[in-house]
Amino acid sequence: MIKLTSGGVYLVNGRELCGTREEAQAKLGKPVDQQQAAAGTMAYGILKAHNQGDSMDSLNLKFDSLTSHDITYVGIIQTARASGMKEFPIPYVLTNCHNSLCAVGGTINEDDHKFALSAAKKYGGIYVPTNMAVIHSYNREMMSGCGRMILGSDSHTRYGALGTMAVGEGGGELAKQLLGRTYDFARPGVIAIYLTGSPKPGVGPHDVALSICGAVYANGYVKNKVMEFVGPGIRNLPVEYRNAIDHLLVLHLGNR
């Protein structure tokens, strides 16, 4: 069962939800400040650590790494190179997992892959050969980590179950990062997804993701928001299960 609340909540001791500040203060036995509580979220801490500006309301972010696949990296690298880029300033993963010769024909895909290999050698990138790994599996295993941020030119770029705040964006934003510029936007609100219990036998991560989407998509409840999964039910979900929920939410919610 999913229940939405219209007002803000306080998460006390990482487990209990309180609907009012007074309730939270009674639980903690000390005053509670709303702004300080907002600064206690995982999202706030990660965003603050990557913010290059003075304001936490209008963010200017630089990421720990970038990632692209063979549908998107050619245009991004050529744009950055034409704009004066001399090297990749941060790790840039170039995977070759989306184009296939049988689908398009000719040598265009092979040419893309050779371009990526030459770019990785010239500018200092990370080249992942064809048939070795898909973009998100590679980043989950090699680039993700608690408190990190990854920007990818793929809509499924999201590794929140591993403590990484990842963003899928258009190629222009990756080109800006390659040029040393920042990713600029207003700090998003945070939605707590409070979990209790454990999934019944036969209930998979796709079922969980679809249930959440059904409750929040049409009403815009999570539009331009960060979802943080909290509560005692998290410990009953293996990390692979969490990864799948995370990935599938992006698939179905899109830009909401």
Task: Explain what this protein looks like in three dimensions.
The chain is an alpha/beta fold. The chain has 10 helices and 11 strands. The strands form 4 sheets. Strands 6-5-4-7-8 form a 5-stranded parallel beta sheet, sandwiched between helices. The protein is globular and about 60 Å long. The two termini are 22 Å apart. The model has no long low-confidence stretch (mean pLDDT 91).
Look at the helices and sheets and give the structural class: alpha/beta
What's the overall geometry? Answer: globular
Helix content: 25-40%
Q: What is the makeup of the main sheet?
A: 5 strands, parallel
Order of helices and strands: EEHHHEEHEHHEHEEHEEHEH
Multimerization state: single chain
Cα-atom Rg, whole angstroms?
20 Å
Q: Low-confidence parts, pLDDT < 50 over ≥5 residues? A: none
Strand order of the largest sheet: 6-5-4-7-8
Distance between the termini: 22 Å
Number of strands: 11
Strand-residue fraction? 15-25%
Indicate the topology.
Elements: E1 10-12, E2 16-18, H1 21-28, H2 34-38, H3 42-50, E3 58-61, E4 65-68, H4 73-82, E5 92-95, H5 101-104, H6 108-123, E6 126-128, H7 135-142, E7 149-152, E8 165-168, H8 171-178, E9 183-186, E10 189-194, H9 205-216, E11 225-230, H10 239-253
Parallel strand pairs: 4-5, 4-7, 5-6, 7-8, 10-11
Antiparallel strand pairs: 1-2, 3-9
Helix pairs in contact: 4-8, 9-10
